[in-house]
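pinned: reference chain
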Amino acid sequence: MGQHVKPYHLRVMTTALQHIESRALYMITTLNIPDTIEKADRPLSCEEIKTIIDEEMGYDPLDTSYLCRILHAAAHFELLSEETSDDKYSLTPISEYLTANHPKSLKGFVKLYSISNESLIISTALSRNLYSGNSGFKEVYRKELLEHLKTDPLLQDLHDAGMANTSRLNAPAIITDYPYLGSCSHICDIGGGLGSFLYAVLSHYDFKMKGTNFDLPDVIDNSKAVNFMDFAIFEYISLVSGNFTGNILQFDCDCYILKDILQNWSDEDALLILSKVESVAKRNKSRLVIIENMMHTGHQQKRS
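pinned: its structure tokens
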């Protein structure tokens, strides 16, 4: 049988309504519903979930009727499994990724990129971007993302957690596709966030090389606190704070990594960052590895 293709008019309607699914995903994640079900180790009813959330999270009491509708919508999108015989909810293979304890958890990613308040506000600015040429973030906040993060600690934490989620998820594929990293003796991850990608690389090679994680001071402070970084590995990973526009590279590495960095800067600033890294890389006869999402012809998006 041939592959089933959704009729074009239904694809249009589905796309127009995708924000509903994204909102359901965001709501059950921010309410810690997957974690609540996992902790209970059994299916829970809507009323049981409400009681636990009200007691443990300290929110104003949730409206039972509306919460049940959110859970029902989540089940419709296969984010939860609804057992119709007793109206209880359990996790699905999808919602397992929304728990904090999952080794490839996407909880932070969802809280950052799903239809959260920030992303919803920014998306509404798209029509203005066509005329101003600014990013959606700058159109709303009058400054770019990285500049705004300095003044918004809560969003900074969300951003760091979201980036850490994606790094842990895509690190194995990058390591497999680029085995050169295994020959390095000292890897410097420039703009490495919480250190998730660098940790994944070093652990894959049994910490036979050392690493330096470089990022903004607030990010580095956060990286010292995250629970996946055992203090024992600081023998192998140095945490260095600074900024891209200053004299950022005062350490010698034979491999410098810029992962998901250049996309956040203008062409002029990206060239400035590259020139700074290049000057040190040339001095040390090192290699610069740039990892970004690249748009190819057709419908594909690839890592390069």
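why pinned: The chain is about 50% helix and 15% strand. The two ends are 35 Å apart (CA to CA).
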